[in-house]
Amino acid sequence: MNGQKTIAQIAQETNELSTLVKVLKEAGLVETLSGNQQYTVFAPSNQAFEVIGKQLDEIVANKEELKKILLYHVVPGVIHSQDIKFVKLGDIHKVKTVGGQELQINKQDDKIYVNGALVTHADIPASNGVVHIIDEVVIPSTVLQQK
Questions:
Q1: By C-alpha distance, which of 52, 75, 54 is closest to 139?
Q2: pTM metric for this prediction
Q3: Is residue 145 part of a domain?
Q4: First to last CA, the chain
Q5: Of 33, 35, 101, 106, which sits most exposed with the smallest number of CB within 10 A?
Q6: Which residues are in the FAS1 domain (predicted)?
Q7: What pLDDT, on a 0 to 100 scale, did the predictor assign at position 89?
Q8: In this structure, is residue 131 part of a structural domain?
């Protein structure tokens, strides 16, 4: 990879991802994103976490649920924005997350969406993968079913 810093280091040094860093620490996942294994991380911005507001406190209080939600944003391997090939506009590309669920990635008007969340900053290179900043926290259906 081109980046000299790990995904965790990039998140820690990016002001827009400070809430993500806080919840990654709560879930004990900073080490996972600091290793050598290659990942693609769809990183919710601080604003994305603000949207869910008080619900975030409830999620953080339940470490297992928090881990499921955070791992839903992590895909094994590296997916750059140019890797998302579409036969035609609106096609959906499905990828399996580290948590074992599927994320749907699609492209509309040259914008990339992950389960409806807009990628606001794509292709931030890391030594162990790539980071894409998104404007929403995406919640796996297994967590939604528990609510």
A1: 52
A2: 0.91
A3: no
A4: 39
A5: 35
A6: 4-138
A7: 58
A8: yes
| pLDDT beneath 50, residues of the chain | 1, 87, 147
CATH number at residue 101: 2.30.180.10
State the residue range of the domain holding 106: 7-135
Tell whether 104 is covered by a domain. Answer: yes
Predicted local distance difference test score (pLDDT) of residue 87: 43
Cα–Cα distance for residue pair 5/2, rounded to 1 Å: 9
Token look-up 């749907």 returns 104
Bridge pairing between strands 111-114 and 117-126? antiparallel
Q: Over the Cα atoms of the chain, what is R_g?
A: 14
CA 71-73-78 angle, to 5 degrees, is 105
- C-alpha pair distances (Å), 128 with each of 1, 32, 41, 91, 107: 7, 10, 10, 28, 25
82-111 pLDDT, tens digit per residue, is 887 654 556 778 899 998 999 999 888 788
